[in-house]
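Lab meeting, item 3. Inverse folding demo.
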């Protein structure tokens, strides 16, 4: 996987400058939302990262490689950047089956027949469309079509996933559900995600992989702190033995792991545990942090 770094990145169309010197470091494995009003340059920025637009100034890194630097005439083409992108209009091809849609990027890059089938099945499984490969897109719901587009981006096992308002065509309920699924899949794969939206709530929820909870032990008596656990830091404890106690709200299977969402008062704490760990919705559970970050408030 890889991080992304923008150094003074600029884009002009003729005399019109639409992106004015962006500096941004996106850490490897993080989920970053680019938020801003219509026309502010979000899509343009994402397309520059993807290599679909050439910047007119600055420097762009993916991992430890400079992929665009107009000052030196340097430009790595999109197919060599190993990124996945889901476009604002998600553009599933209507005349291809679901499996053919997902297989397409593999075929273009010369991956062989037998591997195509297994990787398509794997990608469809990730977005919970296993078994629907033979359907035509018009036999799917809007949310399912959106997930086909996501599978088509995931099938290349990208280092970075670029999502441009991927949920804007969906109703509110589906948006919440799919947003959680995207965040879970990305975390499960340790993938860097750049998520463009003009919706502030969506930006916060998408990048809310880390949850803040009030109260903690192990610091100076009387001090009030906030505690942060990454999902992979929490493990299931026996009754009464952990720092966190709450009711399981949701369990999402991610292959060999499961993401458990635990309601603790006002907050929801997420934990990532092995698929073999017995945990059920509605159950009261105790969790111990192998590691935690404390912040003074
Ligand atoms: N090919 C082009 N030629 C000239 N101007 C362009 C071109 N493409 C985009 N622009 C302008 O660049 C600006 C940024 O466009 P961009 O598509 O990046 O916006 P955005 O932030 O993604 O907006 P939205 O939220 O509406 O999708 C806009 O003002 C747009 O009109
Ligand atoms: Mg846009």
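The presenter then showed the designed sequence:
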């Amino acid at each position: 996987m890889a991080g992304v770094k923008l150094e003074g990145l600029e884009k002009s169309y003729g005399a019109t400058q639409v992106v004015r010197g962006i500096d941004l470091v996106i850490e490897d494995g993080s989920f970053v939302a680019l938020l801003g009003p219509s026309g502010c340059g979000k899509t343009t920025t994402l397309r520059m990262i993807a290599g679909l637009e050439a910047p007119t100034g600055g420097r762009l890194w993916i991992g430890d490689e400079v992929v665009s630097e107009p000052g030196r005439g340097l430009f790595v083409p999109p197919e060599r950047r190993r990124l996945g992108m889901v476009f604002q209009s998600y553009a599933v091809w209507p005349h291809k089956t679901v499996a053919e849609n997902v297989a397409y990027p593999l075929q273009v890059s010369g991956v062989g027949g037998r591997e195509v089938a297994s990787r398509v099945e794997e990608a469809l499984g990730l977005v919970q469309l296993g078994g629907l490969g033979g359907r035509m897109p018009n036999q799917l719901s809007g949310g399912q079509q959106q997930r086909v587009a996501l599978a088509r981006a995931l099938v290349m096992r990208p280092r970075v996933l670029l999502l441009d308002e991927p949920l804007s065509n969906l109703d509110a309920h589906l948006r919440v559900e799919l947003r959680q699924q995207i965040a879970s899949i990305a975390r499960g794969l340790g993938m860097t995600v750049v998520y463009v939206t003009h919706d502030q709530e969506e930006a916060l929820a998408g990048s809310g992989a880390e949850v803040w909870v009030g109260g903690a032990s192990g610091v100076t008596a009387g001090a009030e702190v906030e505690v942060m656990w990454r999902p992979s830091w929490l493990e299931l404890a026996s009754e009464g033995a952990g720092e966190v106690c709450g009711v399981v709200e949701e369990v999402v299977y991610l292959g060999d792991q499961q993401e458990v969402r635990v309601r603790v008062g006002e907050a929801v704490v997420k934990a990532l545990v092995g698929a073999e760990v017995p945990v059920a919705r509605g159950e009261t559970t105790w969790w111990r942090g192998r590691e935690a970050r404390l912040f003074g408030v």
